[in-house]
Amino acid sequence: MKPIIFITRKLDNRVVAPLQEKFNVRMWESESESVPRAVLLKEVAEVDALWTVVSDSVDRELLETGKKLKIVANMAVGYNNVDLDAAREHGVFVTNTPGVLTETTADLAFALLLATARKLIFAESEVRKGNWNSWSPMQYTGMDVSGATIGIIGMGRIGEAVARRAKGFDMRVLYNNRNRKREAEAEHGFEFMELDRLLAEADFVVTLAPHTPETVGLISARELGLMKSTAVLINVSRGGIVDETDLYEALKDGTIWAAGLDVFETEPVPLDNPLLTLPNVTVLPHIGSASIKTRLAMMNLNAQAITAVLEGREPENRIV
Ligand code: GLV
After folding, report:
1. What is the value of pTM for the model shown?
2. How is the chain classified by DSSP, letter by letter?
3. Average pLDDT over every residue of 63-72
4. Model confidence over 24-37: pLDDT tens digits?
């Protein structure tokens, strides 16, 4: 009997076909609807390996149901959707897909920063709606990115990649991180700074910290209050790191100027999320790593990790 894999999303045949040669592959086929919890629980009870994405909650109940389960391969660099303690207790490997998405995610962070600073999405929609009737000096004006100060919270691989892009825009780069990055400081002139001071000095604040119990609500009313009234906040890591209720208030009353969000506390973002009513918010559907090449590379890492475990080998990129 071939080991069984359940994949929670429809995947490209280039990835599925090689797995099918060795394993019994089951896959949730719908692209418009996420796999229902009841289906996931039923599948996990029978499978040897589970392929998940960021919006699948791999909690204790799921891990307890997976009596034969040997690996959860999470197709993301973040793994806050997986209960690592429960996985450890049940002897289940957990892997992620780091490295391959660094530059792609930094590109998106910078694209969102530029789009928010220069009101690109709003300006584009004005053209399509036929509202661009004259050329007026202060119409559609935004904030300069070149020469401004960027403050990066969470200076991991993606943070450093964003910082390198910022240098190309002649920006002053401030960062806050658990550890100092002395090599990057010496090589590129990045400046380490306490969080409160970084928030007060930066024109653009970019959150790239992982989602952990310590980082939930890291940017709340007090922190937003420290920022400049002309500042722009960009979140491309995880919803919840920025408190959405406090952010809504700060954007509405002019505490800060604008925000660009690729991630939300609840995803897909519900249409009644009040942030969607504000003109000074740019929203994206969690597409940090969404280039064709990068998504294929992430899928290949996931396939390799599952193959290794089902063939009795230690997987790469092991979290647990
Ligand atoms: C996406 O959010 C990831 O963690 O890769």
Report:
1. 0.96
2. ---EEEESS---HHHHHHHHHHSEEEE---SSSPPPHHHHHHHHTT-SEEEE-TTS-B-HHHHHH-TT--EEEESSS--TTB-HHHHHHTT-EEE---STTHHHHHHHHHHHHHHHHTTHHHHHHHHHHT---S--TTTT-----TT-EEEEE--SHHHHHHHHHHHHTT-EEEEE-SS--HHHHHHH--EE--HHHHHHH-SEEEE-----TTTTTSB-HHHHHHS-TT-EEEE-S-TTSB-HHHHHHHHHTTSSSEEEES--SSSSPPTT-GGGG-TTEEE--S-TT--HHHHHHHHHHHHHHHHHHHTT-PPSSB--
3. 98
4. 999 999 988 899 99
- pLDDT of 36 reads 96
Assess whether 295 carries a catalytic annotation: no
The answer to whether 211 is a known catalytic residue is no
Query: Which of 54, 75, 102, 215 gets mutated to test ligand 1 (max ligand atoms within 8 A of its CB)?
Result: 54
User: Could you give the domains of the chain?
Assistant: 4-98+292-310 (3.40.50.720), 102-283 (3.40.50.720)
CB 78 near ligand 1, within 6 Å:
yes
Give the per-residue pLDDT at 129: 98
Ligand 1 centroid vs 292 CA: distance in angstroms? 15
